[in-house]
Amino acid sequence: MLTTRRHLWRQLGLSLALAACCTLPAQPALAAEKSLRIGTLVPKNSLYHRQLMEVGEAWRASQGGSGKFLVYPDGSQGGEAEMARRMRIGQLQGALLSVVGLQEIEPSIAALQSLPLAFRSWEEIDHVREKMRPAMEKRFLDKGFVVLAWGDAGWVRFFSKEPAFRPDDYKKMKFFAWGGETAQQEIMKSLGYTPVPLETTDILPSIQTGMINVVPATPYFALASQVYNAAPNMLDINWAPIVGALVLTRKAWDELTPEAQAQVRTASEKAGTQMRAKARQEVDEAVEAMKKRGLVVNRPNAAQMREWQDLAERLYPRIRGTMVPAETFDEVFAHLKAYRAANPGGGR
C-alpha cells in the first residue's frame, strides 16, 4: 500500500505510460553545450511533455538556436532508477523524476512523498516543500545535480476490483508493488498485506488477469492507463501526494553561460508552476471522467477514516529512520505543526 506512493509519480501526471522500453545506445555524452537529453516516464504530448519542450526551447535559444534538445518520454530510457544511472554516466543530461528516481540521488527527498496521510492539503505540501527546498536543493547540488523545477501529480488513491472501505478490507487483496521497493514490501507484509513486485509495464495485464487486485495510483494515471476498467472501485482518500522534480546534471549546467542558466531556470520555474496547477486540476477532472464510464467512488465514513489514520500512525515509526531519514522526517512534521498553528481551520 505504501509502495505506490513512491512509484507513482512515474506518472508525473501520472500516467506512467505503459510503453515498451527502448534503450539509448551507450556512448559518451556529446558536447553538452550543443546537445541535451532529458528522460521521463510521462507520456508523449502530455502537459508534462509539452512543458519539458518549452524548457528545451529556452535552452536552444540560449545556444543561439543551434542546440539539440531531445526528450525521451514514455519511460523509453527505462525506469526512474535507470534514468538516474544514465545521468551519472552521461547518457542523459537531465530527467523529470518522481521521488522514486530522485531518492536514488538524495534519499531525504522521500519525506515529501512517503508519509501516508501526513498532508491534508496542497497548501500544506507547498508550505513544507518551500521550507525544505533550499537545503534539499543544496544536497542535490552536492551530489552533482541541479534542481530546476518542482512539480506534483495528484493524490494517490486505491483502485481495486472489489469495493473496500477499511484497511482490513485490503488484506485479502494483492497489491501492485514496485519491484525495487523492498523496504516498503517488507512493511506491507508485516502489517498483513500482500505486495506483488512488478514492473510498470506489468500493471495493466496483471490487474486484468487477477495477478493483482489493487493499484494505488493517481486518478490521472488510472484514467490514462485504463486501469480503472479492470479495477472500477476507487477509495476516496488522499493517501499521499506524488511529488517530483526536473533535474539536470551539474556538468551540463556548469557548461551553460550565466545568461543561459538564467533563461533555463526561468523557463523551468514556469514549467513547474504549470505542472503543479494542471496536475491538481486533473485529480477531480479524471475522477469525473471515470465516473461517467462506470467508476464507483467509495467514501469511508468517520469511523473508517479513523482506522486509516491509525494505520498511518502505526507506519510512521517504521518509516522514520528507514524509508525517510529521521532528521528529515522530524522536520516535515515540525513544519506541518507550525503551519497548522498559524492556519487554524485550514486542514481537511
From TrEMBL:
Entry keyword annotation includes Signal: yes
UniProt KW keywords: Signal
A Pfam short name: DctP
Cleaved signal peptide residues: 1-31
CDD domains: PBP2_TRAP_Tp0957_like
NCBIfam families xref list: TRAP_S1 (NF037995)
Protein name: TRAP transporter substrate-binding protein DctP
Species name: Leptothrix discophora
